[in-house]
Design goal:
The protein is mainly beta. Helix content is 2%, strand content 56%. The protein is built from one helix and 65 strands. The strands form 16 sheets. Strands 55-56-57-1-58 form a five-stranded mixed beta sheet, with no helix packed on it. Strands 46, 47, 48, 49 and 50 form a five-stranded antiparallel beta sheet that branches. Strands 2-3-4-5 form a four-stranded antiparallel beta sheet, with no helix packed on it. Strand 32 and strand 33 form a beta hairpin. The longest helix has 14 residues. The chain is globular. It starts with a helix and ends with a strand.
Length: 720
């Protein structure tokens, strides 16, 4: 009986015989997803919404405050912040659509088990709060691009009233600041364009760009300004009076305070300092607890008696506020560093914060190699059976390197040098530092041994062909032969005389595509005849407003442009031609790896990597979806708990079950039983049964099912 894959490739073979021109790409899997936690954490209907830059993680908040991952909403934009308007049941995100410095506000309806896109705005920037919701409106942004969403009509409307700097809102009250006259003004805005003045208070703010207004209780609101808080008394919606000032000069750069239970106020800052004050006497707050986590905190949220903090590289930290002053916490979510993977000879190598592993692309089984020498890597390279892990230290003069022997899975050496690795070609390591391009090889002591160096002012280094690298710098362009270690051609800045730098050049046959990047948003793309490299001939040029890269696949040219669909051309001869097809890979395409030996294309970005199978039959890309599922657990063996990870694809969008069984086939515990949308999921099994009693040591099986149909299974070992 033939498998679906065998039938697929048989059809492709018939198409080749019939001379039907196409390239068929079969979706293989999303095998790597990276997370970094950014500003933006909010709650709605017992769910916690957390920003992870390229996606939003949605958790169920359990009765004891623990988090259970519900689903992940992929956004494919750099998310700068998120905020929820609970009354309107909507979530807002501020995203950078990779046209820096443009930012766009995107709104989503919060539906059961999914976020549904509602609308987006024009470019904007947020100083403090992302949105300012009131009874009938949601004000979007600041006065220089002010507009609002009318909740009643569900339409975007312009605001004609000349508001000043908006500081915050609550109920039907808007608070603004006039920096020229140093007035803090409270308005009632039943009508957004005809506000009613409630109260005006003259006071010069320390930094109005980072001020927040929060309602404390039914009778108080507060204005947070750097290191001081102004408290206002609310007699009713038409009477607001200044009450008192709280001076917190000992606390620097604090984030949004919240009122806790029993008149307790939490204040945290970016440096990881945490404070809890008793504010039962609003004229005299008393410090109750303080602790320092000594780690960068992006944002936090208080839900009932629980505090959740999003940590840049740590996940979500959870505190039970009833147990203060103890600083004991638990961590939810998973941090996967960006740019921490490599693909060589059909195998994926991944650098987690605590270990390095490899993934078999045929079975998706993941195998531990060794403990990670660094928390994260900027890139991974391979020479024969040696893995080179490169960690970029942005704030230091040196970069970290580790050399790992894949035969023994041991770390041979770790060291620091100022050079940054770019390319490995012919077993030579090409780096740059200051105004030099350096070429190394690995000696018998597992060290970088310098072979030669070349002077280049602020160089950009790319691969040219299998024996040459291209160096572009401010005063010239030249090719270095990585075998002879000599400069074969010096073009004296012929190709890029006016550009800031050049992107990866593409050489095919006797043609060369050069992408001259001119910041902030222009790329000049040139096509050359290089049959005679000593006298290159410009054939054609075009201008693109965004960043492009080009790749050659047999008789085709593939153009990638970040979030845009990939564009496919026939090989350019004497001029640029129209594309023959566009295809959306539904991911952020920063660079590609084409593995022709295994008919595989991998699309990389900072936060995702997707792999695709293809079969080349001519001049078209036709996507064919391959049903595939990941299911694995880590650590394995484990004690006391393990994280089971899996993916949900289009073939089973209905009710999904994840069940643990013992060796006798008896059901131990059902971990998941509900509908899941497409995406990657993970859940922790703590080694307990359905009655929450700890099970004994031994082998256990877990199965992923959809509508009682087995999708995938796995095996784990509990050792006590």
């Amino acid at each position: 009986k033939m498998t679906k894959k065998a039938i697929f490739f048989l059809i492709l073979l018939v198409m080749i015989i019939l001379q039907i021109n196409s390239i068929e790409i079969e979706y293989e899997n999303t095998w790597s997803r990276f997370t970094l936690y950014n500003k933006g954490i909010d709650s709605h209907n017992n769910k916690l919404y957390v920003n992870t830059y390229f996606s939003i993680e949605i958790y169920n908040i359990l009765s004891n405050g623990d988090l259970e991952l519900d689903y992940i909403h992929e956004v494919n934009d750099f998310i700068q912040d998120l905020q929820i308007d609970a009354d309107a049941n909507m979530l807002y995100t501020l995203v950078n659509e990779h046209n820096y410095p443009e930012y766009v506000l995107k709104a989503y309806d919060i539906c059961e088990n999914e976020l549904v896109f509602c609308f987006s705005t024009n470019s904007m920037y947020s100083f403090n709060d992302l949105i300012y919701p009131v009874s009938h409106y949601v004000i979007l942004g600041q006065p220089d691009q002010l507009e609002c969403y009318n909740k009643d009509t569900q339409q975007i409307e312009d605001i004609t009233y000349p508001y000043q700097q908006i500081l915050g809102s609550f109920e039907n009250t808007l608070v603004e600041y006039d920096s020229l006259n140093t007035n803090i003004t409270f308005y009632n805005i039943d009508d957004i364009n005809n506000p009613t003045l409630i109260y005006q208070y003259n006071h010069e703010l320390i930094d109005y760009s980072y001020c927040y207004v929060r309602k404390v209780d039914d009778n108080h609101c507060m204005l947070i300004d750097n290191q001081e808080i102004a408290l206002f008394y609310i007699e009713n919606e038409l009477n607001i009076y200044f009450d008192s000032f709280w001076d917190f000069t000992s606390i620097s750069r604090f984030r949004q305070p919240f009122t806790l239970v029993d008149d307790q106020l939490y204040i945290g800052n970016l440096e990881g300092e945490n404070f809890v004050f008793d504010v039962s006497d609003y004229n005299s707050p008393v410090l109750l607890y303080e602790w320092n986590e000594d780690y960068f905190m992006y944002d936090y949220f208080v839900y009932e008696n629980y505090l959740y903090q999003s940590k840049y590289r740590e996940g979500i930290w959870f505190y039970d506020l009833n147990e203060l002053p103890s600083s004991q916490y638990e961590v939810f979510g998973q941090y996967f560093p960006p740019r921490s993977t490599g693909y060589f000879d059909g195998v994926i190598y991944k650098n987690y914060p605590d270990h390095i592993s490899k993934v078999n692309m045929e079975t998706y089984e993941e195998e531990l190699i060794c403990d990670a020498p660094f928390d994260e890597s900027w890139s991974i390279h391979k020479i024969n059976n040696l893995l080179i892990v490169f960690s970029l230290l942005l704030l230091h003069n040196y970069n970290e390197y580790a050399i790992i022997d894949l035969n023994t899975n041991t770390i041979l050496n770790t060291f620091e040098i100022p050079d940054r690795i770019h390319i490995i070609q012919n077993d030579r390591i090409i780096t740059s530092h200051d105004n030099y391009v350096k070429i190394y090889e690995i000696n018998g002591d597992s060290e970088f041994e310098l072979l030669t160096e070349f002077v280049a002012d602020s160089p950009y280094i790319n691969e040219f062909d299998e024996n040459h690298i291209w160096v572009s710098h401010t005063t010239g362009d030249f090719l270095i032969n990585t075998i002879d270690l000599e400069i074969d051609y010096d073009f004296e800045d012929f190709f890029s005389p006016e550009s800031d730098w050049i992107a990866k050049p593409l050489k095919y046959d006797d043609r060369l595509i050069i992408c001259n990047v001119n910041f902030p948003n222009e790329m000049v793309i040139k096509l050359y005849d290089i049959n005679d490299l000593s006298n290159p001939l410009l054939l054609d040029s075009k201008i693109d407003s965004s960043f492009c890269r080009y790749y050659c696949l047999d008789d085709l040219i593939i153009e990638i442009n970040r979030l845009e669909p990939i564009v496919v051309y026939n090989k350019f001869e004497d001029s640029f031609t129209d594309p023959i097809q566009e295809i959306d890979l539904d991911t952020y395409n920063e660079w590609l790896v084409i593995d022709e030996e295994r008919n595989r294309i991998l699309s990389f970005s900072l936060f995702y990597c997707k792999s695709f199978l293809y079969e080349n039959t001519g001049s078209e890309l036709e996507l064919i979806y391959e049903k595939s599922t990941k299911l694995s657990n880590y650590p394995n063996p484990f004690n006391p708990e393990t994280t089971i990870s899996f993916s949900v694809q289009n073939e089973f969008p209905e009710n999904t079950e994840l069940i643990v069984y013992n060796l006798k086939g008896q059901k131990v515990k059902q971990l998941i039983n509900k509908p899941l949308s497409n995406g990657d999921y993970s859940i922790v099994w703590d080694g307990s049964d359905k009655d929450n009693k700890q099970v004994s040591s031994g082998v256990y099986f877990y199965q992923l099912k959809s509508e009682d149909k087995l999708i995938a299974n796995g095996k784990c070992l509990l050792l006590k």
